[in-house]
Design a protein that fits this description.
Elements (H helix, E strand, L loop, with lengths): L15 H7 L10 H9 L4 H10 L5 E6 L7 E9 L2 E9 L5 E8 L1
Antiparallel strand pairs: 1-2, 2-3, 3-4
Length: 107
């Protein structure tokens, strides 16, 4: 499901519980190559990425950003504490699967 709608509030553009449902196991991990490389750089594999996503809470929401190259689409950014790291985790809606993980890096 792709969200092509104006965003008129300060909250996330996407439902966090829906994101967590989509990213519930490693088979459903829809992630960009750069996000995967960044995760590997901090020692995280697919299972740890899923663990972090499942641990995200609404209070971790940082901001929503419009996609520059695709007007009407939004990215939600979370700052997620995990162990001794503070991770920058960014999602968007995707035409093929419901959501895509765009960024997963140490802040």
């Amino acid at each position: 499901m792709v969200y092509l709608m104006p965003k008129d509030n300060d909250g996330p553009a996407h439902d966090l519980e829906a994101i967590k449902t989509v990213f519930s196991d490693t088979k459903s991990l829809n992630i960009t190559g750069s996000a995967l490389q960044d995760a590997f750089a901090v020692g995280y594999g697919a299972e740890e990425i899923i663990e972090v996503i499942q641990a995200i809470k609404p209070v971790h929401f940082y901001k929503s950003m419009a996609l520059e190259k695709r007007p009407g689409l939004w990215q939600d950014v979370y700052r997620v504490p995990h162990g001794e790291l503070l991770l920058y985790v960014k999602f968007t809606s995707d035409a093929v699967t419901e959501f895509k993980l765009l960024s997963f890096k140490e802040r």
